[in-house]
Design a protein that fits this description.
Elements: E1 4-8, H1 12-21, E2 27-32, E3 43-46, E4 63-66, H2 78-89, E5 94-102, E6 111-113, H3 123-135, E7 139-147, E8 149-151, H4 158-161, E9 165-166, E10 175-177, H5 178-188, E11 196-201, H6 209-220, E12 226-227, E13 235-237, H7 240-246
Parallel strand pairs: 1-2, 1-4, 2-3, 4-5, 5-7, 6-13, 7-11, 8-10, 9-12
Helix pairs in contact: 1-5, 2-3
Length: 263
C-alpha cells in the first residue's frame, strides 16, 4: 500500500526531498510559513509554529517529516521546544516520524563525537535535545536526524569565500550535501526500519575550512580569499551508524566532492 506523508516545513530541504520522491506517496501534505505550494504537494497549509493561532489540526497521514530548522534569531531557545510541542499537539499520531535536528547538540571538544556523546550545555543544545525527546513520544517509530551543515545546489558558501580572510582555516568542517540528506530520509522510510533511533547525518570526511573553501572557489571559478593558518576549536561528527547499521551509501564521502550551482 502506498503511504501518505506530511512534510512540516517544506522549505529548501523539503522541496529537494519532494522533487526526488513525491511520486512515491499517495498523498502529500505540506506546510510552510510563507512559501508557495511546492512541487508534488496535494494540499498546502500556511502556518507559523511560533504563532499558535495559525496552527491547524493536521490531517492524518502515515508518515511525517518535520524539517523546521532551529532559528538562530530566537532569543529564548526554549521557544523552539515549546513551538514544536504545540505543533505536535495539533498533529495526529503517525506510524513514522522523522525529525531533522542538528549536530550542534554536541560540544566542541576537539575530538570525535557520535550518537552516544554527551549533549552540550548551551541553551541551544539543551533546547534541541529537549525537542528530540518530545518528538520521540509522537509516533510508533521515530528517527532523529542530527544534520551537519547543509550544502549543495545554491547553498554554495560563495558569500563566505568572498570574505578577505578565512579565520582559523585549518579547523575541520562538518558538512553534508542535501542529496545525501534526502537519500538518508528516503532510506529510513523503508518498512524495514521501524524503531526509535538517533542518527548523525554528516559527510564521512572532515577537511579543513581552507581545503573546503578552495574547492568552492575552484568549482565556482572565483578568486580564493586569504587563509589564516590556525586551527580553532572543533568536533568531528561520526556517521558510522548511518552507513553501517542502516546501509546508507553517501554520494559525497567528502565535502571536497560537493557539487554546487550559482543560483
Amino acid at each position: 500500500m502506498t503511504p501518505s506523508i506530511t512534510i512540516i516545513g517544506s522549505g529548501w530541504l523539503g522541496a529537494h526531498f519532494l522533487t526526488q520522491h513525491a511520486t512515491e506517496f499517495s498523498q502529500v501534505i505540506t506546510t510552510a510559513k510563507t512559501q508557495a505550494q511546492p512541487y508534488g504537494s496535494h494540499h498546502h497549509i500556511l502556518m507559523d509554529i511560533y504563532d499558535p493561532s495559525t496552527l491547524p489540526s493536521l490531517p492524518p497521514t502515515d508518515i511525517c517529516l518535520i524539517a523546521i530548522p532551529f532559528s538562530r534569531q530566537l532569543t529564548t531557545p526554549k521557544r523552539y521546544t515549546q513551538a514544536i510541542g504545540a505543533l505536535l499537539d495539533h498533529a495526529p499520531m503517525y506510524k513514522k516520524l522523522i525529525f531533522t535536528s542538528s549536530t550542534s547538540v554536541y560540544p566542541t571538544c576537539n575530538d570525535w563525537v557520535d550518537e552516544s556523546s554527551p549533549i552540550d550545555t548551551t541553551p541551544r543544545a539543551q533546547a534541541l535535545a529537549a525537542t528530540e525527546t518530545r518528538v520521540k513520544q509522537h509516533a510508533k517509530s521515530t528517527y532523529i536526524l542530527r544534520l551537519a551543515g547543509l550544502c549543495g545546489g545554491n547553498r554554495n558558501s560563495k558569500h563566505k569565500c568572498q570574505a578577505p580572510t578565512i579565520h582559523a582555516s585549518q579547523t575541520p568542517v562538518n558538512l553534508i550535501h542535501v542529496n545525501d540528506v534526502v537519500a538518508s530520509i528516503a532510506a529510513l522510510l523503508s518498512p524495514d526500519h521501524s524503531s526509535h533511533d538517533t542518527l548523525n547525518v554528516c559527510a564521512t570526511d572532515h577537511p579543513s575550512k581552507a581545503d573546503y573553501y578552495r574547492h568552492v572557489c575552484k568549482t565556482l571559478t572565483i578568486h580564493p580569499p586569504q587563509f589564516e593558518p590556525i586551527i580553532g576549536p572543533y568536533k568531528k561528527v561520526c556517521n558510522k551508524k548511518l552507513r553501517e547499521d542502516y546501509g546508507v551509501k553517501l554520494t559525497f564521502k567528502s565535502p571536497l566532492e560537493f557539487t554546487f550551482h550559482e543560483t
